[in-house]
Amino acid sequence: MFTVKVIEEVFVALGGIAVFLFGLRQMSDCIQSLAGSKMKRALYGATRSKIRGVLAGAGVTAVIQSSTATNVMLASFAGSGAITLGAAIPVVMGANIGTTVTAQLVSLSGVNLSLVGSLSSLFAFVGFVMTFFGSEKLKKTGGFLFGFGILFIGLGIMNESIISFGQYAFFRKLFTVKNPFFLILNGFLMTGIVQSSSAVSSVIIVLSSGGLLSFESSTYLILGSNIGAGIAVLLLSSSMEKQAEKVAVVNVLFNLAGTIIVLPFLIAFQKPIESAFYLISGSSERMIANFHTAFNLISAFLLLPFSGGIQRLTECICSKKLRKKEKIKAYI
Q1: pTM of the full structure
Q2: Are 149 and 24 in contact (CB under 8 A)?
Q3: pLDDT at 42 over 70
Q4: Are 79 and 243 in contact (CB under 8 A)?
Q5: Which of 8, 91, 137, 161 has its CA 20 to 30 A from that of 321?
Q6: Which of 200, 151, 210 lies closest to 9 in space, CA to CA?
């Protein structure tokens, strides 16, 4: 079943994912260096209003291409006492909307992947050259362009290797599982391991474009990926103050609640939902990217009025966790 050829293609796919993640991180690091202080001020200033908080979270995350970075910034604000947990909740919701921009870019690249590959190589080369000359600002701009090019080069590697999986029965069975809960768990675990929902959603889009994943299966994987995205923030915030950890818990609760709300409708009305997204999008890649964005928009719209309830639930969970820690310390 696992021939040398299969193993080689798996390694190439993993390499493509690694290159994609490197490009994503490079873009995020450089844009934060260029405009990090401005973005922090924007996030801090927007916490006075729920709507502004959602918009700021979406905008900042769309620019830096990392909801984890946005949530970590929020966690540091909350940990230092600069903002309250209640003020941070709308920004967390917005960050989940902003992180879908990567999937939108990847889905658009499917229109002409060869052209995108050529342009991305040019961006990577020009950006790399720019990192050796000029001011620090010019070098960081070059680093951003280099990351942007590398991201799509990684996507191209993923696309070529993953599509070839379709010829193997094992992979076809793996990707055509019909159980929604198993698929949600798959998406959760994949994101927990890779630590990037953007990378996982991009892989889902590539698999779909190669005919390995149906729209139905993709939607459940996206739901699981959204929940798994909170794991990285939880891990990073565990060493911060108690208030910072609460922001990470809010992120998980938001995506979990959104999944609980949307899942029954997905199961009951899968065909009408698929038809609606096909009419709007036209291709499998665009359908998945648009579903990802729509899911987070709907979740934010429905849950924003209940941000107070999310705050109280978060306080309850974290206080119970703290009491358990204190009991364990007492026994030790």
Answers
A1: 0.77
A2: no
A3: no
A4: yes
A5: 91
A6: 210
Residue 12: the pLDDT is: 81
The number of helix segments (H) and strand segments (E) in the chain equals 15, 0
Q: Write down the pLDDT at residue 296.
A: 93
3-class secondary structure for the chain? CCCHHHHHHHHHHHHHHHHHHHHHHHHHHHHHHHHHHHHHHHHHHHCCCHHHHHHHHHHHHHHHCCHHHHHHHHHHHHHHCCCCHHHHHHHHHHHHHHCCHHHHHHHHHCCCHHHHHHHHHHHHHHHHHHCCCCCHHHHHHHHHHHHHHHHHHHHHHHHHHHHHHHHCHHHHHHHCCCCHHHHHHHHHHHHHHHCCHHHHHHHHHHHHHCCCCCHHHHHHHHHHHHHHHHHHHHHHHCCCCHHHHHHHHHHHHHHHHHHHHHHHHHHHCHHHHHHHHHHHHCCHHHHHHHHHHHHHHHHHHHHHHHHHHHHHHHHHHHHHHHHHHHHHHHHC
SS3 179: coil
Mean pLDDT of the chain: 79
How confident is the model over 259-283, as a mean pLDDT? 91
pLDDT of residue 272: 93
